[in-house]
Amino acid sequence: MKKALKIIGKSLLIIIALLLSLFIIFYISTMGDYEMPKTVEQDSSIPHLKIENTTFHLETFGNDTNDVVVILHGGPGNDYRYLLDLKELSDNYFLVFYDQRGTGLSPRVNAEELTLENMIHDLNNIINHFSPNKKVNIIGHSWGGMLASGYLAQYPEKVNKIVLAEPGMLTSEKAEEFIEKFQAKFSFGFLWHAGKCWFESLHVDGPDDQASQDYFFTSLSFNASPELFKNHPMSKYFCNQNIESASMNYWRYSYLANRTIFMSLFDNDGNINLDLVSGVENFPNKVLFLISECNQLIGEEFQKDHIEYFNKAEMVIIKNAGHSMIGEQPQDCLVAIRKYFNEQ
Fold this sequence. Notes:
344 residues, alpha/beta
């Protein structure tokens, strides 16, 4: 018995020594400078606005006497950089772009602040700041479309026109359908990529305590080779399932915002609890849905179920585009948006 225990003990020591050696090897081999952008908290020269106790990376374009258009980025956790082609609308509208609470170049916050309720509250504060006495137009993409629908459900009287560009999921039923479609089967190559990203993230030195996990998340999600995404569900967002066809410009993705807000959709029993449509029936105007031709996950068929909740809705298909349609085919998107905004 003692002999067997000694053999087991030695085996465990050998395994621990091998794992420690591998850790040291990978740690040393991935050493380098992996910088993450500063947020407004570290660089006050970044354009920003503070409302109540929350600071946002925020930019405006156009004449502030024109109708206000608020643009909502996706994620949750992304930023508005990939939507800047919409700046062309500033010839006729006053545009407000902002990185949502704790995302992009906005200061990082604690997980307790990253709730859907706070995101809707922030949007309402921004609308009240820039257009206190007049209805606004809203453009929301992906998660931003979800946020826009949730806002419309609560404040239909504050909105004139609203564009929902492939909102992710607006109800519990559609959330369950999406999660079922998104079941990933990770290859050895993708796991190797994930390990490399994690070791690289260990070398990230600031500028804040979330920088390392932000680096890991963005590198894992967007810096893999196209071959690694061929069998990943995320590839179905893009034309020919090729991530290289996407428009993926960003400053800094927030891992904490993405994880926290997504997990908040589940109750204590693991059931999804999501309703971003109860109340949208009180909005009398037409809603524009922008749909990409290539998206096999949340494209035309998926959005048809969402449209049923709105009194009036129009669907415009953006040809030769995947989920990041606004960056892939900006002119087609702008034509559709302008036409809708100009309707009486």
